[in-house]
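Lab meeting prep.
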Amino acid sequence: MTAREKRAQAAVEAHVWPPMLAVDPGATNTGLCLRVGTNAIEAVTVERGEDTGCHTLQTDYARKVLAVMGVLLDRNRDRLNEEADLRGLRPTAIRRSVETLVPPTPRSVKGRQKAVSPSVLADLPGAGIVVGSVLGRWPNSVTVAPLGRPGWDAVGAEHAPRPLKYKTPKTWLAGGQHREHQRSAWAIAGAAHVESMPELKTQVDAVVAWSVKQSPARDAEGLVALLREGIQQTGSWDLLNRLPGVAYAVVATATRNPRSGEDAKQDVEALLDNTKDAP
């Protein structure tokens, strides 16, 4: 599997939490997608509008993108609170991400057979203003590098959830008809999550260190509550779907007894299976 294929697969499979509002910037159409887990909570395409020749055309377009990002979050506050509750967590800050742009090559260089076409060069300023506006407003946004041909839009076209592939749900914001930008933003959200998270071992070590200090409970319900709190405290979000394994690591470390860790793992597995409480 190539590096590109690994990036694409990881973006598709990412269980995104906290929620990620991703931006696929374009010269005339920008896709936005609010993603949780592998689902699209809501998405919309923001259109620049007709080229009137006005010098504020692109800056007005960028302001519109920022405004619609705010509207998407305001519309979905209750839904996002419900998603947190389903995971046994407190509501947390929303993350944002944006795809960046590859610098143009106006003439042939080694490794690139031909120069960037004039049409591509013409589109870069508009998309660049959107990227800059998002990062200027939210400097901590996760930046995601382009995937290369055929791009994040192709990943979304194949793997995005049903609401992004078929008719726009009636409850979603009305926007532009270029829905490939929404599918691309969905994939960008997954890539942003994966590429901004520490390695799994680092996350496990952080939760174990925090949890052991709390004198972990032995009963499954108390242990699950503790693990979720530890995940929230340390930002080790990729462990939300790995609670049995984390339970083993925490209890085995706290008791210095692998058998106790295995018992805790099985108890947590049984609890999650019985309550269907795993996100």
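Slide two material, second protein:
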Amino acid sequence: MENKNTILITGGQAEPNLLSTLEKYYSQQGWSVYFSQETEFHKMAMAIDEMTNGEKKLNAFIYISPPPRQGSMLDDDEHIIAETMNDDLERGLWWVQNACKKMVQQGVQGRVVTLAHIAALVPTEYYSYGAASQLALMNICRSAIQEMVPYGIKINTIFRGFSEEDPQQKAFVEQLKQLHNDDGIPLLEYVNAEDIAKTSMLLTDPDIHSFNGAMLTLDGGFYVTRKIRYLDPVRE
């Protein structure tokens, strides 16, 4: 029997475990899962056309931004800030545009998710420079939400936390844990692929209509920790 729903997942080539976990969870729920790493606008459109050939419709789409790279305002020799803004932002925008166009063409009330990193939302030492494109993409998508309302297309963003699988991210978090050791608020947990997959499935569920423009921080409390780290946790 043919699967009822179809999802296209793009990006994530640096995170094979995340891709395989997403595929596993969606496949278990009877979804047809497709992947693409195209970087050119017209090739993205062609990839979607090939995937939806025949009666198959595009019900959901996920764009995975690359893990944030360490950069610096004063020492940006590799031009990380400009590179990610010109690469990740442009690529993500093109993919979202093509996915929305196909959903409108097919009359599908689809679901779009951009998978970003918490460093794009919360200023951090070095990492946020390489993740600025992800926050920009979310803001563009929030403008697109108004345009997509008549078509029933919902666009949401997940800001995931730091990964223990990435040596650089792990080293950074372990330094933060030492720095905030006496804060009394130990909310620096790693995020895993299973949690990301389950949350993505929630946001792409065609039977849930209330999520639109949502910004979910799947970060183990990192966002909260950075907001309240300066408060004295001991009451007098």
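Talking points for slide two:
DSSP finds seven helices and six strands in the chain.
Residues 80-106 form the longest helix (27 residues).
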